[in-house]
Amino acid sequence: MIKNKSHRKGFVFKTYEAPNQSPFDKLFDIFKELITHTSGDFDEAIDWLRELDKEYNLTTPEYSIEDFIEDLKKKGYIREEIDNDGNGGMAITAKTERAIRQQALDQIFGKIKRSGQGNHKSKSPGIGDEHTGDFRNYQFGDALDKVSMTESLKNAQINHGISDFTLSEDDLVVEETLHKSQMSTVLMIDISHSMILYGEDRITPAKKVAMALAELITTRYPKDTLDILVFGNDAWQIEIKDLPYLKVGPYHTNTVAGLELAMDLLRRKRNTNKQIFMITDGKPSCLRLANGEYFKDSVGLNPTIMNKCYMMAQQARRLHIPITTFMIAQDPYLMQFVREFTYANQGKAFYTGLKGLGEMIFEDYETNRKKRIRG
Q: Which residues does the UniProt record annotate as the domain VWFA (predicted)?
């Protein structure tokens, strides 16, 4: 007699077990977060790490904070530095800056699957090197390496027969390819005082997004360009390596100065596709006048400043430069300004708050890169 064996199918749930990390790696992950929040201040980050250690027992008798600092030195993540006053101290190195950018990328875009060589594909076929699977008849001027020999030989057999094989120009077919383009992006970051007002730290998420975007472009789209600028009373360009040290200042918000610099940077680029990403809480409150003086108004939205912003948005539109605004404040009157600004540019706006900011910027970057190249 054969007994029927029943097999249970389903899911098996287990208690979550954290990845097995070394004591150094465990502390280093936390340290990278802290150094971002402290704008690169090593001593302050270590002070915070000691406080967290007291509360959460991060270290052991075998591996202390001092051991961790010593390993940071040995591994080249920190170095001794003497300031202008002759005082010695520790500072992070370029190796740490890269590690911070990579961590930001992993946190924000970690679930994104990388495809192929990771270069932009325009929607219209043409001269390029990404195969589409579609074929067309050979035309004079087509490169010979684009001729599909398999399909061409098949056509020759069909058209002339196998017994008397002949290959003519009419038998040749070319496989369509997608043109790989380049994208020039300027990322504008608002560093006005309002970015840390009301008990909300808006600048750290903005920094992390900028670092992640920089790492994404330099590793996945190396042919693309990314320029980063910050704007307060004025606007100025910063390097990728400066991002961890970025701080909010006692500034008003000169959005116009930021847009002027962004468009000036993009005018110098030869790439056809250009765009501006702007992270802001949406309240322009400053203009620099022709005589060099500043016109400031922090109460509400000043019509003079607003109209100048709209003019800049229209100018960018005429230059075929779309502006995508990532609005991280929720005030209705500020959101209305962003809507009108976006309409003037025919760009886009995301009213994201801080949560999901990175994912939205990534998705928009990817979407913009798939648009057809002008000209």
A: 185-283
